[in-house]
Amino acid sequence: MAKDSVPNHLLKGFRERLFGTQQAMADAANGHLAPAYLLTANDIGKLERGAVEQPSAPRRAALRRICAAETDAEIGFARRSKARAGGHDPVAQQREGVTSSPTRLGSELPHTGQKPAGSMTSRGLPSSQSLHDLRTPSGGPGTVTLSVKLDGRELSVSLSRHDLLQVGVAPFLEAFASGQHSDMVLEAVKRPDPSSRVTVTSPAHLDEILVHLRDQWHAQVKTDNLLGPRFALASVLSQISVIDALRKALRDEQRLAVVRLGAQYAESAAWLYEDSGRIAQARHWTSQALELAYEADDRQMLAWTTFRRSQQAAAVKDAAAVIGLARAARRDDELLATPMRAAIRVQEAYGHALDGNEKGSQQLLDEAHTWAASDTVGDARGGHGSYCNSGHIEIERATCWLATGRAKKAIPLYEQGLRDLPPVFQRNRAAAQSRLAMAYFADGQLEQAASTAHEALPAARSTGSGRILEEIENLGSALASHRQLGCVAALLDGLGQSGESRDS
């Protein structure tokens, strides 16, 4: 290592927590890079050691994306040479546990009816405003200070990098955004491992816990449908921590019952991360779900988790994988609940549309109607795939027509599907509006495309669906040369004012 090289502890922390190996991190980043910029495990090692301080802009953008970071500073890439010349070295400060660069995590705050006056930053506050009494003294080596400003009131918490990587910022945000005071913020950050607190006193007690967790799962499914992943994810992860504690403590049949439920929750976490646009985390939780479903010999959960893998392949337009994984998911078709059969066929239909096979795609969509669900409540009481009602199938038929370049066929299906969509499926409404906007654009209806995308933007933003936001942003970029049109200007201004536009 060069004499003046400074290790990038932030990037290494993200890698260890989210990906494990340097190769896994490189593979995740390469999913967002052109061939000329592909990374190797050796490249990640150089970045972590500080041998390479400032990678190219495309590589930084890819690494920000897989780490769910909004600025270079969050993953340890600061302009070091300029800072050193002025006697201020943000990377050296990073090594000592202090940085003056803002960490923009405000978009992660759940909406509480009050608009944040500022964003989460890593700036410290005067000692009179700080909250201490944590494992590592404030400002000491290996310390990170997190602060939030809401309605003019700012709170700060110092914690060790170890705590931050193990716990993450979600508990801190959850406590602060829910209107709790400093003692609750500290409680959230210093929350111990739940395995030290979960106790089962009898088989009847365990049964009640499992009934409660199953009911909570249905409640979180409905929360996701109504409000999106921003509001559902923290609760799902909290329940997973309870399940993990039970898995460690129990044995034999009791443990298997918990493992089966753990697979269900892990798959839900995978979907919520996928919808949030955090693909690396989605893949991690999908792997967890597959492992738990296999251990529990839960054939339905194995099928549904394989369906989730197919969805992740669809996000990168890998038609062969979409089709192959969907077919694998329905290998035990006779064991699957009927809504699940419908949803898996819809997924395979999209794979055939990506592959240019219109006939095969439409036949599968017709088959899916045989098993269509009738859920208008949105809590999946009918099992996985309960959202896949006839209206949803027709919206997905529109998406298949759009994928094959038949926008004129897609538009009326989207329009009718939006009219028929039950009110509970608000995030799905925003997704359908976004794709209808894309269909209008493909059909040359630019103003209609812009106004429809603009209509979808508030719901996409409030739900925290990075997947939908990315579609709207891409459409905004495609429309940018038509800013003279009023609707286009409104969309572009909306994207700019929201701060949601991402670096390319």
Protein topology:
Elements: H1 9-18, H2 22-30, H3 41-49, H4 57-66, H5 80-85, H6 90-96, E1 130-131, E2 143-150, E3 153-160, H7 161-167, H8 170-177, H9 182-189, H10 203-227, H11 229-249, H12 252-276, H13 279-296, H14 299-315, H15 319-329, H16 338-354, H17 358-368, H18 390-403, H19 407-420, H20 426-442, H21 446-463, H22 466-479, H23 486-498
Parallel strand pairs: 1-3
Antiparallel strand pairs: 2-3
Descriptive notes:
- The chain is mostly helical and about 500 residues long.
- Among the domains are: about 10-95, 434 Repressor (Amino-terminal Domain); about 105-190, no CATH class; about 195-295, no CATH class.
- The protein contains 23 helices and three strands.
- A three-stranded mixed sheet has the order 1-3-2.
- Strand 2 and strand 3 form a beta hairpin.
- Helix 2 (about 20-30) crosses helix 3 (about 40-50).
- Residues about 80-140, about 180-190 and about 495-504 have low confidence and may be disordered.
Strand-residue proportion: under 5%
The overall pLDDT, averaged over residues, is 81
Per DSSP E runs of 2 or more residues, the count of β-strands stands at 3
Shape: globular
- Return Rg in Å: 24 Å
Strand order of the largest sheet: 1-3-2
Classify the helix fraction into a percent range.
Answer: 55-70%
SSE class: mainly alpha
Largest sheet: 3 strands, mixed
Low-confidence stretches: 80-139, 178-192, 497-504
